[in-house]
Amino acid sequence: MKTSIIGVGSSLPEKIVTNDDLAKIVDTSDEWIRQRTGIVTRHIATKETTSSMIEDAARKAIADAGIRAEELDLIIVATVSGDYRFPSAACILQAALGNDRANTFDIVVGCAGCVYGLNIADSFIKSGKVRYALVIGAETISKLTDWEDRSTCVLFGDGAAGFVVAASEDDSVGIQGILARGNGRDGMSLTMKERENMSPWADGEKVWDYLHMDGQAVFKFACRKVPESINELLDSLGLTADDIDKFFLHQANYRIIETVAKMMKQPLEKFPTNMDRVGNISAASVPCLMDEYYHKGLLKKGERHVLCGFGAGLTYATAVVVWDK
Ligand code: UT7
After folding, report:
1. Phi and psi of 12, rounded to 5°?
2. 62: left (phi over 0), alpha (psi -120 to 50) or beta
3. Which of 153, 250, 253, 305 is catalytic?
4. How many A from CA of 151 to the centre of ligand 1?
5. Residue 223 annotated among the catalytic residues of the structure
6. Hey, CA dihedral for 40, 139, 162, 67, is it positive or negative?
7. Is 119 helix (H, G, I), strand (E, B) or coil?
8. What is the pLDDT of residue 311?
9. pTM above 0.85, yes or no
10. pLDDT digits over 239-295, tens only?
């Protein structure tokens, strides 16, 4: 038995912010952002919230799957920017969908989020406890960003996207293999510190922090771990990179994609991208890209895909999926 992707959906905020718009608020340029990252525009939430984008993406994925929201047994939301500390974004979604039976929780794994969530859903489905699972990655990173820090504010966009997955009796389709790992030792290279203890008994400054990133450290981590994890998974399945039709990698930086393609000795054409238009949308990145390709008719039934997310933690997750829609 395998876990198959039966629905996909995404949601992006209406407002589009260009590199030139950013050059008006920080010391940067369209040329620097394009050359160093491949990003040209990104969507930024104004009236949208993390929860509203999650609900929109979830409803589209559920409709695409052709199931009813009440049938979901498991709802996982991968986010570091939910609207509430609690209840979880997943519970807020569950209420909005009118589902009152699913096992429902958030996971905090940054940009590896949706593929990490797929790994959990795959285990639940294989255990026989879950028939239909919803895995959504969603971020409003714009509310965590220091808009005076040019080294981070130009990178991220907002959005939500995800999958409905279900058991498939046909072993030749769906998730053929999946791994998810943490590398906590390097975690401090991408952080956002929690609110200080505000109690009258606590010492310390009462401050709210922003997202911080040692870009080069994360860049090196990605260029090492992404090919390593893909090769490990392919080896375990008796496959090689040549057996893969498309590599859907987290859209953090075009130079990471180029490096991975080179290391895997694969043509860049096999690596779809949309970071030029949406920037780095963290946990939503991989499903958003796949949703775009799917709706453009660019995913063919029976194609073999690699999905790979990497980010805060530091964490990474990699899957080999045979597309079944
Ligand atoms: O999604 C989670 C995972 N995240 C990632 O995978 C991100 C991985 N890292 C990266 O994509 C890249 O490291 C960045 C895009 C974040 C940065 O690119 P870089 O080539 O590593 O630049 P850098 O940090 O080494 O900075 C080079 C120069 C510096 O100036 P000096 O010290 O050489 O004078 C920066 O101050 O570029 C400067 N700089 C900028 N200049 C114009 C940094 N940000 C900007 C900017 N505009 N926005």
Report:
1. -125, 145
2. alpha
3. 250
4. 5
5. no
6. negative
7. helix
8. 97
9. yes
10. 999 999 999 999 999 999 999 999 999 999 999 999 999 999 999 999 999 999 999
